[in-house]
What we know:
Helices cover 53% and strands 4% of the residues. It has helices at residues 11-24, 44-60, 66-73, 92-103, 109-119, 123-127, 131-140, 161-169, 182-185, 190-206, 214-227, 232-239, 244-248, 255-259; strands at residues 142-146, 152-156. A hairpin with a 5-residue loop joins strand 1 (142-146) and strand 2 (152-156). 30% of the residues are buried.
Amino acid sequence: xxxxxxxxxxxxxxxxxxAILKLAYPPDGNVVREPIKEIAAWPEGRRxxxxxxxxxxxxxxxxxxxxxxxATIGKIPRVYTAPSEPVEPPNEEETSAYAKAAEAAPEPYxxxxxxxxxxxxxxxxxxxxxxxxxxxxxxxxxxxxxRKGGKRRDLPARxxxxxxVALLAAPAASGKPWKIAGEILxxxxxxxQYRALWSNIRRIGATLxxxxxxxxxxxxxxxxxxxxGTPGEVIQKALGHASYRTTQxxxxxxxxxxxxxx
Length: 262
């Protein structure tokens, strides 16, 4: 059989997969049964996640050959829609305005709103920060966190020490000391913590008439490094990309950037 190889899965993705499988295959997410008929009314984006979860589950059960997977995934209806217009990341003027507005927010919302912009981290990487790692970063200036795919990586963090201190001082939403930073925003599952972070960032952007979400701040971070003359390989390292081709999608040069070299 042509088996599917498995890569490490981040905790947030694992929780998301388990949750969607239980919704599609109640009560325990067993993909051997027929999925509920209601999934036909799900948004296509949600069904995309379901298909990925099914593929992962079958591979983990040891029946991950392509024929079995295609047959099971084929039971999930597909709806094709015209692609929506991409949302452009904020330009430099908008990014500066967002940063200024975020600085005016109370803690810990200020720090959650600014860390993706100042470190270029993904939302899951900020929410998944371990307390011990944050304490160590305050002392050493090096922040260790879990990248996409479960990889452990380090980033220089002296420029965000004040934000890390603010997170350490904040209690979890439950009122108890937190172990994972996302617990500060929400006591629920990782999906709920992401929605809380997204809402916080969106609310700050909305005060300026901007559409801002966590991943767009990662794009703004990369673009700012480019404007400082940072080598592409360094930007790639900061973002944690395996390929520079991926990094290029995060760098958004405009007319003013071109003008510097003409």
